[in-house]
Amino acid sequence: MFSFLAASGFLGTRATVRSDLTLVLILLTAVLFTIGWQLAAHKRYEAHRWVQTAAVTLNAGVVLLSMVTSFVEHILPGIPAKLLEGSYGITTVHALFGAVAVIFGVFVALRGNGLVPKAWRFKNYKLFMRTAYVLYMVSTLGGVILYITLYVVGIQPT
What we know:
The protein has about 160 residues and is mainly α. Helix content is about 70%, strand content about 0%.
């Protein structure tokens, strides 16, 4: 059904359409997170909430549909035996850090929309939102480095 995703990508690297599309969508979420941050800095909180919610939703969707499935198919079967070979290590570190970023970011977005139990609500929005933003940006940078490692340099799982 989605066999076109396995075709050669559109960014001129060794990547597939799936990997190129994933990169583009994740970079789009990084831009959306930054726009949302600027909206909050300019005290446009309602627009900020909508943009951040959209970015978290898009990011979580891409992570679940593309990154998690790719990790489970290509990397997980080689762990722990191949952890120090090829791209297994860098991919696993990125996956662990990214999982923390996504889980924390989804929690912050749910809290920002009033969708968590009262006991889990926090008051210091700036600290939580800034932490989520930094986690997302570091994870995005890690993903770009991983993309370059896999598809530009060509270090593949062995």
